[in-house]
Amino acid sequence: MAALTAEERLNKVKIALYGNAENSYNDDQLKIYIDEVIEELISGGVKQEVAESTAAVGCIAVGVNDLWNFTSGGVKHSEYFNRRLIQLAKKQGGVEDVSTE
Asked: I need a labelling partner for 11 at 20 to 30 A (CA). Which of 17, 59, 64, 95 fits?
C-alpha cells in the first residue's frame, strides 16, 4: 500500500472521475472534496496512512462524486462508499486486522 502525495492523489481521482488528469480548471474544488472525504474516512475508523494511500483512491473518488452530486439538504453516500470505508477501516498499515477483540 503506497503513500501518495496530494498531487498524485488528485491526479488519480481525476482519472477515476474523468478518465484523464488533463484539465485543471476545477482542481481547487476537487482538493476540498478530497480532503473532506479523507477526513470522513479517518473519522469512520480508517487509519490516516490507509486513508492517504493508493488503497483508498477508489473510495475517495466515489466519495468525491457523492459530494459533487449532493442534493439540497444532504449528501447520501453510495453503498459502495460505505462498504469500502468499512473494508479500509479493517486495514492496519497494509495488513488486515483479523483480531477477534
From this structure: 95
Q: Band the pLDDT of 97: cuts 50, 70, 90.
A: very low
Cα gap 94→72, rounded to integer Å: 37
What average pLDDT does the segment 33-44 reach?
Answer: 97
Residue 77 CA to residue 101 CA, distance in Å, equals 29
Distance between CA 28 and CA 51 in Å, rounded? 20
Find the helix or strand (DSSP H, E) in which 83 lies: helix 79-89
Q: What is the pTM of this model?
A: 0.85
**Residues near 17 by Cβ (< 8 Å), separated by ≥ 6?**
61, 64, 65
Nearby residues of 51 by Cβ (< 8 Å), 6 or more positions away: 38, 41, 42, 88
Return the closest-CA partner of residue 44 out of 99, 100, 88, 4.
Answer: 88
The confidence score (pLDDT) of residue 95 equals: 47
Q: Confirm if 41 and 61 have CB atoms less than 8 A apart.
A: no
